[in-house]
Amino acid sequence: MKKSFLFLADGFEETEAIGTLDVLRRGGMEVQTVAVMGKQEVKGAHGVIIKADVLLREMLKEEGELLVFPGGMPGAQNLSECGELMGYLQEHFARQGNVAAICAAPALVLGKLPLKKDIRMTCYPGTAAECWIKTSLRRRSIRVWYRANSPAPLQTPANIQ
């Protein structure tokens, strides 16, 4: 199994990043945190500082199993404004790679991809206008293209049928 990557930019939502990282690693995935702003220490939206495993430029030649984008503001905006990261994401998307985006990241990060207009995903309501993707909080509309994004804690793809 290839490595997976969780991308961090200043202003990331700490719970979305650390909680996701913890669950994926406990589940047996090899996940590296990636700092996208040129320095290894990344400051979360609430002041928590995380030392990322690698810098973006150090992993760009690797193909990831899963790319994870936590939300948070201005973290998701900072991710979406990183040209190298967006280029990497577009190449990954073109190969039909797995992607997970949380809260504001579906709109701000994935919204820059050439997605079909009928793809449904959930995102933070305040960011829905940032992209043309149909959003829905209905229980049967939670599936996000290759992985699940949930509006409620502890929901998993297994119980969203």
Give structural attributes:
5 helices, alpha/beta, globular, 161 residues, disordered C terminus
Helix content: 10-25%
User: Which class do the helix and strand fractions yield?
Assistant: alpha/beta
Form type = globular
Total beta strand runs: 11
C-alpha end-to-end distance: 27 Å
* Strands in their spatial order, largest beta sheet: 5-2-1-6-7
What is the chain-wise order of helices and strands?
EHEEEEHEHHEHEEEE
Poorly predicted spans:
129-161
Approximately how much beta-strand content do the residues carry? 15-25%
Gyration radius, rounded = 14 Å
Number of helices: 5
Q: Would you tell me the overall average pLDDT? A: 78
Give a quick account of the main beta sheet: strands, pairing sense, barrel closure. Answer: 5 strands, parallel
Q: What multimeric state do the chains show? A: single chain
Description:
- With 161 residues, this protein is α/β, with parallel strands linked by helices.
- The protein is 24% helix and 21% strand.
- It is built from five helices and eleven strands, in the order βαββββαβααβαββββ.
- It has helices at residues 14-26, 56-59, 75-80, 83-94, 105-108; strands at 4-8, 31-35, 41-43, 49-51, 54-55, 66-69, 98-101, 120-121, 134-135, 143-144, 147-148.
- The chain has a five-stranded parallel β-sheet with strand order 5-2-1-6-7. Strands 3-4 form a two-stranded antiparallel ribbon. Strands 8-9 form a two-stranded parallel sheet.
- Strand 1, helix 1 (14-26) and strand 2 (31-35) form a beta-alpha-beta unit.
- The radius of gyration is 14 Å and the shape is globular.
- It starts with a strand and ends in a 13-residue tail after the last strand.
- The model is unreliable at 129-161 (pLDDT under 50).
